[in-house]
Amino acid sequence: MVAQIKPICGLDRVKLSAVIPLETPFSLYVFPTTFCNFKCIYCAHSLGLKEMKKRYNFEAQNMDIETFNLIVEQVKKFPQKLKLLSLTGQGEPLINRNISKMVEIAKKNDIAERIEIITNGSLLNKEVAKSLIEAGLDTIRISIQGLSAEKYKNICNYQLNFDEFINNIRYFFENKKQCNVFVKIMDIALEEGESEKFYDIFSKISDRMYIEKCKPVYDGVKYPEEAYNSIDRYGRAHIRRKVCPLPFYMLAIFPNGDVVPCDSIYKPIVLGNVHRDTLFDIWNGNKLKEFWLMQLKNMRQKNEKCAKCCAPDDVAHPEDELDSEAENILKRLTK
């Protein structure tokens, strides 16, 4: 079998404007950790924790298993299952030693159609692979940062045994059972002419592979000039979006239990905390509704955090576009 060249995101999408408001969010992003062992040049972690605290009020933390159990119990109060539970966030999820246990708990409680992690794969040894597969992980998305140890050192400031790294991915793929293995790389992590080498390496050890376009995700990080063009990370051109669709179909939870309306680093608004509020009440509460209305009224730029974020023009899909239906959705929400 040869891997498909397709984006590693979920491709089975509905027209979002037609189904808002949702009774249950489609996606829940739970951040097992906000620590990372990489300092990739296009990531906020390249700035260091002191600067991240200053710019984003960012704290490096691990989520404890008690908080995760509380989240799972709260998710069960929604009328439908989540489409996606993503155990990922602003860090490397395999740093949290409970990551396989989290997958297992979520799977046993049947709270999501699909459970995934996004990882840099550097900690994916045979033992970790076995535990994730046996826990029932549905998708592992591996972010590749170069095609040599030297490139990893330059991009991530990390000393990687590249051959061992590839062998660990191969081991996972050959023993994956139900799990899909998706790999992607940023275009700026490839040397000129290396695209075919990327496809050649991963064509028989992944289910899907893709080269993404680098976008200016993090304020304060220097990006090449071409990162600011009007295409998304999947290479699709579009008119710049006014309404961010993410908060209309997802919630995200930081390790301390803070609940936010998207998975960005910025925390545009803290909607509550799972230790004192329930996810069901947050999703149906006035604080989130007011945030939705702000988006639909073309006031996103007035939120200091949203104004810095490129997510609507980076990770949003054509099916998620809300600008053309903003007025109708606004009427629907304010009846």
From TrEMBL:
Q: Name one GO molecular function term.
A: catalytic activity
InterPro entries in UniProt: 4Fe4S-binding_SPASM_dom, AdoMet-like_SPASM_containing, Aldolase_TIM, Radical_SAM_PqqE_MftC-like, rSAM, rSAM_sf
UniProt xrefs under CDD domains:
Radical_SAM (cd01335), SPASM (cd21109)
Signal peptide positions are: none
* Span of domain Radical SAM core: 22-247
- Entry keyword annotation includes Iron-sulfur: yes
Look up the record and name the cofactor or cofactors this protein needs. [4Fe-4S] cluster
PANTHER family xrefs: PQQA PEPTIDE CYCLASE, RADICAL SAM DOMAIN PROTEIN
Q: Report the protein name in the record.
A: Radical SAM domain protein
Q: Which organism is it from?
A: Caldicellulosiruptor kronotskyensis (strain DSM 18902 / VKM B-2412 / 2002)
